[in-house]
Amino acid sequence: MPLPATWLTLAWVLALGLLAMLPIGAVLGSLFRSVRSAAIVVMLGTMVLFGISGIFTPIATQPTWMQWAGQAFPPYWLGLGVRSALLPANLAAVEIGHSWRPLATAGVLGAWAIAGLVLAPVLLRRAARREAGSSVAARRERVLSRGI
């Protein structure tokens, strides 16, 4: 792939990947009341998700059910898009379908971005309504009193 095409591919994949992944964090953050419990669950979930998404090993070497599960989430498609931009074309042979699948990458990341950008504000508004102003002020004072 010529250098300008490489940079263009990398730019759109990273931008769309960011739009797909960022709302997931907002949605998950709105589901937990405690930062500590959220951190544990989200980190464990993230490690499992990246483990099955083909980021560390080629997804084609995993069992079929793990391939399907990995392809259901944005990290696989983000990784596939970045690999398509940075690796030589002949390395597509280790991917599913022996192709970089740029249209599928754009479609799946776009679908996740749209779903997340629609769902995140709804859940964040719901979480904000659950929260009383006095409890927010009390937590703020507690943090400020520690000198952080």
3D architecture notes:
There is one protein chain. By secondary structure, this protein is mostly helical. The chain has one domain. The chain is 74% helix and 0% strand. It has six helices and no strands. Helix 2 packs across helix 3. The longest helix has 29 residues.
Quick structural summary:
This protein has 148 residues and is mainly α. 74% of the residues lie in helices and 0% in strands.
H/E series: HHHHHH
Shape: elongated
Whole-number radius of gyration?
19 Å
Number of extended strands: 0
- The amount of helix comes to over 70%
User: Biggest β-sheet, characterized?
Assistant: none
Summed up, the domain count is 1
Give me the number of helical elements.
6
Q: Residue ranges: pLDDT <50 for 5 or more in a row?
A: none
Topology overview:
Blueprint (H helix, E strand, L loop, with lengths): L2 H28 L4 H18 L11 H8 L2 H13 L15 H29 L2 H13 L3
